[in-house]
Design a protein that fits this description.
about 325 residues, Glutathione S-transferase Yfyf (Class Pi), Chain A, domain 2, four-stranded mixed sheet, 10 helices, 7 strands, binds glutathione
Length: about 325
């Protein structure tokens, strides 16, 4: 684990605030691909390249949106190896499920950042959307990459589905914000806390939010109501990792997701959609978390984890609403 400072790699762990709280830094590349042709990044088949880690919930969001929109043919993907050591994310095609850097051929993910900006400073994170034409990073913030795939690649995408439609847009934004701090980032805030008070604060807010969402998903099929939207993907990528790693490794162990009938059914409905199971690499998820965070797990032992029956009937039809399979795949 490390970061770039003025183009130089430094090996340093996350710096907590004085109260031991984990502080996540802002993504640095924030340009947009625009369908309307404003600006210099326009959508095109084969032009953009996506860098991901199968382990990472933020990268996972973009892989799910790519699959649901039918963008696999248009946006190729390079996958880093699960272990993130002192040198940061690394490409190693000898590890099953990982690839070389197909766009640039470098050894480390930081080489992609340095190709975009030789004097780059900041954390070297996945996901990264790379433009093969201008040879630069367009964006490295998952929320924005998801939105671009959803709205800006219409001419290229094989499936005509909108997961943040105008009538629901404000509600989707509100819900994305609502789940971000206590849930998506909350598991990290619990896991990376270096003082008891910081951990207590994070883990309490996390389970309060999960309890709330459990109640909501007992009344309606999706977070924004009748139909699946982007925010359901954002919740899913945290929940699918929860019982395997966050529960044990990040000490989020008041309950498991399987103990929440509505959350667990919700996870299964999304997991069972065409193309989603193959975006869930449980081997990379387990190895990445348990092996990479030496301060939390110094001997890097990978915990066995529970056996999850993700293919069991999800039973979400009883809530009415729109089945995602019908909405997206017309089945
Ligand atoms: N805000 C970013 C966060 C991305 C992020 O933190 N990714 C993690 C992997 S789960 C990473 O690459 N961390 C490397 C580091 O912090 O050095 C997003 O949502 O895209």
């Amino acid at each position: 684990m490390g970061q770039l400072v003025d183009g130089k790699w430094t090996t340093q762990w996350y710096e907590p605030d004085p109260d031991g709280r984990f502080v996540r830094s802002e993504a640095g590349f924030r340009s947009w691909v625009r369908a309307a042709g404003e600006g210099s990044f326009s959508p095109a088949d084969g032009r953009y390249h996506l860098y991901v880690a199968w382990a990472c919930p933020w990268a996972h969001r973009t892989m799910i949106m790519r699959a649901l929109k039918g963008l696999e043919h248009a946006i190729d993907v390079s996958v880093v190896a699960p272990f993130m050591g002192d040198q940061g994310w690394r490409f190693n095609a000898e590890v099953e499920g990982a690839t070389v850097d197909k766009a640039l051929g470098g050894e480390y993910l930081r080489d992609v950042y340095l190709a975009a900006d030789p004097r780059c400073s900041g954390r070297v994170t996945v996901p990264v959307l790379w433009d093969t034409q201008q040879r630069t990073i367009v964006n490295n913030e998952s929320r924005e990459i998801v939105r671009m795939f959803d709205h800006e690649f219409g001419g290229v995408a094989r499936r005509d589905v909108d997961l943040a439609p105008p009538a629901l847009r404000d509600e989707v934004e509100r819900l994305i914000d609502f789940i971000y701090e206590p849930i998506n980032n909350g598991v990290y805030r619990a896991g990376f806390a270096t003082k008891q008070g910081a951990y207590d604060e994070a883990v309490t807010a996390l389970f309060e939010a999960l309890d709330h969402v459990e109640g909501l998903l007992g009344q309606q099929r999706w977070l924004a109501g009748e139909r699946m939207t982007e925010v359901d993907i954002f919740l899913f990528t945290t929940l699918i990792r929860f019982d395997l790693v966050y529960h044990t490794h990040f000490k989020c162990n008041r309950k498991r997701i399987v103990d929440y009938p509505n959350l667990w059914g919700f996870v299964r409905e999304i997991y069972q959609l065409p193309g989603i199971a193959k975006t869930c690499n449980f081997d990379h998820i387990r190895k990445h978390y348990y092996q990479s965070h030496e301060t939390i797990n110094p001997h890097r032992i990978v915990a066995i984890g529970p056996q999850l029956d993700l293919d069991a009937a999800h039973g979400r039809e009883r809530l009415g609403g729109v089945a995602a399979r019908a909405m997206i795949f017309g089945e």
